[in-house]
Amino acid sequence: MEEDLESLAAKDIHELLRAWELKHRHRAAECVTHHTLFRKETRWPGYYYRGDAMKVDDANWHVLTVSRATRRPASTRWRRRLAITWLRTRK
Protein backbone atom coordinates (compact mmCIF):
# COMPACT_ATOMS: atom_id res chain seq x y z
CA MET A 1 0.00 0.00 0.00
CA GLU A 2 2.87 2.39 0.71
CA GLU A 3 4.01 2.09 -2.90
CA ASP A 4 0.50 2.88 -4.15
CA LEU A 5 0.24 5.92 -1.90
CA GLU A 6 3.56 7.26 -3.16
CA SER A 7 2.34 7.15 -6.77
CA LEU A 8 -1.03 8.86 -6.27
CA ALA A 9 -1.85 11.49 -8.88
CA ALA A 10 -4.57 14.11 -9.19
CA LYS A 11 -6.08 15.94 -12.14
CA ASP A 12 -7.41 18.86 -10.10
CA ILE A 13 -7.13 20.46 -6.66
CA HIS A 14 -10.10 18.49 -5.31
CA GLU A 15 -8.50 15.14 -6.17
CA LEU A 16 -5.18 16.39 -4.79
CA LEU A 17 -6.84 17.16 -1.46
CA ARG A 18 -8.48 13.72 -1.39
CA ALA A 19 -5.15 12.02 -2.18
CA TRP A 20 -3.41 14.00 0.56
CA GLU A 21 -6.12 13.07 3.08
CA LEU A 22 -5.89 9.39 2.09
CA LYS A 23 -2.14 9.35 2.60
CA HIS A 24 -2.40 10.96 6.03
CA ARG A 25 -5.30 8.77 7.16
CA HIS A 26 -3.19 5.75 6.29
CA ARG A 27 -0.26 7.20 8.27
CA ALA A 28 -2.50 7.89 11.30
CA ALA A 29 -3.94 4.35 11.22
CA GLU A 30 -0.43 2.92 10.97
CA CYS A 31 0.73 4.97 13.98
CA VAL A 32 -2.26 3.94 16.11
CA THR A 33 -1.64 0.27 15.24
CA HIS A 34 2.06 0.45 16.15
CA HIS A 35 1.34 2.25 19.44
CA THR A 36 -1.30 -0.34 20.34
CA LEU A 37 1.13 -3.19 19.69
CA PHE A 38 3.88 -1.44 21.68
CA ARG A 39 1.71 -1.21 24.80
CA LYS A 40 1.35 -4.60 26.50
CA GLU A 41 -2.09 -4.01 27.99
CA THR A 42 -5.74 -3.29 27.26
CA ARG A 43 -6.91 0.32 27.52
CA TRP A 44 -10.63 0.59 28.05
CA PRO A 45 -13.41 1.50 27.89
CA GLY A 46 -13.49 2.13 24.21
CA TYR A 47 -9.82 2.62 23.37
CA TYR A 48 -8.60 -0.83 22.38
CA TYR A 49 -8.59 -4.41 23.55
CA ARG A 50 -5.69 -6.84 23.28
CA GLY A 51 -6.52 -10.53 23.37
CA ASP A 52 -3.10 -11.37 24.80
CA ALA A 53 -3.24 -8.73 27.57
CA MET A 54 -6.82 -8.23 28.69
CA LYS A 55 -6.23 -6.09 31.78
CA VAL A 56 -5.34 -2.45 32.34
CA ASP A 57 -1.79 -2.29 33.73
CA ASP A 58 -1.45 1.14 35.33
CA ALA A 59 1.62 0.07 37.30
CA ASN A 60 3.67 -0.27 34.11
CA TRP A 61 1.67 1.52 31.44
CA HIS A 62 0.10 4.66 32.95
CA VAL A 63 2.41 6.59 30.65
CA LEU A 64 2.39 8.47 27.38
CA THR A 65 3.69 6.44 24.47
CA VAL A 66 6.07 8.57 22.43
CA SER A 67 7.48 7.47 19.10
CA ARG A 68 9.62 9.07 16.45
CA ALA A 69 9.78 7.67 12.95
CA THR A 70 12.64 8.34 10.57
CA ARG A 71 12.68 7.74 6.84
CA ARG A 72 16.41 7.14 6.28
CA PRO A 73 17.06 4.55 7.55
CA ALA A 74 13.47 3.57 8.17
CA SER A 75 13.09 2.98 11.90
CA THR A 76 11.01 3.96 14.89
CA ARG A 77 12.23 4.85 18.36
CA TRP A 78 9.87 4.14 21.26
CA ARG A 79 9.81 5.69 24.71
CA ARG A 80 7.48 5.76 27.67
CA ARG A 81 6.93 9.07 29.43
CA LEU A 82 5.18 9.64 32.73
CA ALA A 83 1.57 10.65 32.35
CA ILE A 84 0.78 13.94 34.03
CA THR A 85 -2.76 14.64 35.12
CA TRP A 86 -3.57 18.31 34.86
CA LEU A 87 -6.23 19.59 37.22
CA ARG A 88 -8.09 22.62 36.03
CA THR A 89 -8.91 25.08 38.77
CA ARG A 90 -11.86 27.43 38.61
CA LYS A 91 -11.45 31.01 39.61
Write the layout of secondary structure elements.
Layout: H1 2-6, H2 13-38, H3 58-61, E1 63-70, E2 75-82
Antiparallel strand pairs: 1-2
Report on this model:
By secondary structure, the chain is α+β, with helices and mostly antiparallel strands. The chain has one domain (2-82): Fumarate reductase/succinate dehydrogenase flavoprotein-like, C-terminal domain (Methane Monooxygenase Hydroxylase, Chain G, domain 1). It has three helices and two strands; from the N terminus they run αααββ. It has helices at 2-6, 13-38, 58-61, and strands at residues 63-70, 75-82. A two-stranded antiparallel ribbon has the order 1-2. The longest helix is centred in the first third of the chain and has 26 residues, at 13-38. The protein is elongated. The N and C termini lie far apart (52 Å). 0% of the residues are buried. The model has no long low-confidence stretch (mean pLDDT 79).
Features:
alpha+beta, single chain, two-stranded antiparallel ribbon, 18% strand, 3 helices
